[in-house]
Write a structure and sequence with these properties.
- By secondary structure, this protein is an alpha/beta fold.
- It has two domains: 237 residues, Spore Coat Polysaccharide Biosynthesis Protein SpsA, Chain A (Alpha-Beta Complex); 161 residues, 2-C-methyl-D-erythritol 2,4-cyclodiphosphate synthase (60s Ribosomal Protein L30, Chain: A).
- Helix content is 31%, strand content 27%.
- Strands 5-4-1-6-10-7-11 form a seven-stranded mixed β-sheet, with helices on both faces. It has a five-stranded mixed β-sheet with strand order 15-12-18-16-17.
- It starts with 17 loop residues before the first strand and ends in a 9-residue tail after the last strand.
- The N terminus and C terminus are likely disordered.
- It binds magnesium ion.
- The site of magnesium ion (MG) has 5 residues, from strand 12 and helix 8.
Length: 416
């Protein structure tokens, strides 16, 4: 078998048209998340999206068929839509992995000479490894990614070791497993005849004595099965992201914002998106939510994107009396486009009156929702100035905000 092992760098890239079949039938039993693992977030993106994006980047892959559990069909289609996944068809899978692959096989478009079956829960697959498997399959008829076993392997019965197995010939199967479409159909027909249950395509090919070559897989091409696998996968992604962005903007950015508004009769007092009962309210072109403005300015500051006045001018009728949480949502969208997310925010409101602490929980909830973060990431503090200055005289309210943003893992499934 070792003679079939290939070096990734020597592959040719001209391969016939291939359909990817991605069984994504997990129900999340071992993940303990309650939702199927294909929807678990990995670096902020559902696992299945990472997987599909890698295949979409390979030109020879002309169709990607996701076989999802019938109960999650709608959710999977929505995912494909939301993330604008290319070349994708979502079909109903079955109970076993092989049922899902079979369902996928029935949807392979004519003209796809090969199929590449890949576990939905192996999100760290790279286009390079996919191409290597395709190229070897074209040469040998069938090829799969695998890695040599590193640990000493024991056969165990009733808690005791029976023997040590020679690991020289042992390889751990990964995916993709690439097979001629007709050959895989033939193997599946035979499996059905024999009521054979297999856990990968190679075991089906063994049934009909078809050989399969082995391509050097990657230790990083892990299958997400347990919650700790997600932690490992995220660490690998972060490390890759650092490599993809050498010497660019720092991964963390800090920003500060300050704002003050005058108090006046006949206005609502809005702070952190919450209306607070008070005889006076803040004056301004928008709802004059001074707290949210300071937060917006801090985020814009961290992005190096100027200030709130520049983005939402107070002469623009579009922003007249606007809910400042909407402005915050736009600022967060800008952060998102720049590839940044909020780590935490620390905000101090300076007001002689009213007492703000009772309103902080409601504010935190609103701000955290808009900032797509946990409430624990938003800290709110209130202080007076002991009746000194304009806030002490209750002429106005001021707010300071400090934020930290972190660079999100970008689309790291680019070429390695
Ligand atoms: Mg303001």
């Amino acid at each position: 078998m070792a003679s079939g092992v290939l070096n990734l760098e020597t592959q040719t890239l001209n391969t016939p048209r291939t359909a990817a079949i991605i069984p994504a039938g997990g129900i999340g039993k071992r993940m303990g998340t309650g939702s199927p693992k294909q929807f678990c977030l990995l670096a902020g993106i559902p696992l299945l999206v990472h997987t599909v994006r890698a295949f979409a980047q390979v030109d020879a892959i002309t169709a990607i068929i996701i076989a999802a559990p019938a109960v999650h069909l709608q959710q999977t289609r929505q995912l494909a839509d939301t993330y604008k996944l290319q070349k994708v068809t979502v079909v109903a899978g079955g109970k076993l992995r092989q049922d899902s692959v079979k369902a996928g096989l029935a949807h392979v478009p004519p003209g796809c000479e090969f199929v590449a079956v890949h576990d939905g829960a192996r999100p760290l697959i790279t286009p390079a490894l996919i191409r290597a498997c395709l190229a070897e399959a074209e040469k040998s008829g069938a090829a799969m990614a695998a890695v040599a076993v590193k640990d000493t392997i024991k056969e165990v019965k009733a808690g005791f070791i029976r023997r040590t197995i020679d690991r020289e010939t042992l390889w751990q199967a990964q995916t993709p497993q690439v097979v001629r479409t007709e050959t895989l159909k033939k193997a599946f027909a035979q499996a059905e005849k024999l009521s054979f249950i297999g856990t990968d395509e190679a075991s089906f090919l063994e049934l009909i004595n078809e050989p399969m070559a082995v391509v050097q897989g990657s230790e990083q091409n892990i299958k997400i099965t347990r919650p700790e696998d997600l932690i490992i996968a995220e660490a690998i992604l972060m490390q890759k992201a650092q490599n993809v962005l050498p010497g660019q903007a720092p991964a963390l950015r800090v920003g500060h914002g300050y704002d003050a508004h005058r108090l006046a009769a006949g206005r609502l007092l809005v702070l952190g998106g919450v209306v607070i009962p008070h005889p006076t309210g803040l004056l301004g072109h928008s709802d004059a939510d001074v707290l949210t403005h300071a937060l917006c300015d801090a985020i814009l500051g961290a992005l190096g994107a100027g200030d709130i006045g520049h983005h939402f001018p107070d002469h623009d009728p579009a922003y007249k009396d606007i809910d400042s949480l909407k402005l915050l949502a736009q600022v967060m969208a800008a952060a998102d486009r720049e590839g940044y997310a909020l780590v935490n925010a620390d905000i101090t409101v300076i007001a002689q009156e009213p007492k703000l602490a009772p309103h902080f929980p409601a504010m935190r909830e609103k701000l955290a929702t808009v900032c797509r973060t946990a409430e624990s990431a938003i800290n709110l503090k209130g202080t007076t100035t002991e009746k000194m200055g304009f806030t002490g005289r209750q002429e106005g309210i001021a707010a300071h905000a400090v934020v930290l943003l972190h660079q999100k893992v970008k689309d790291i499934l680019t070429e390695p």
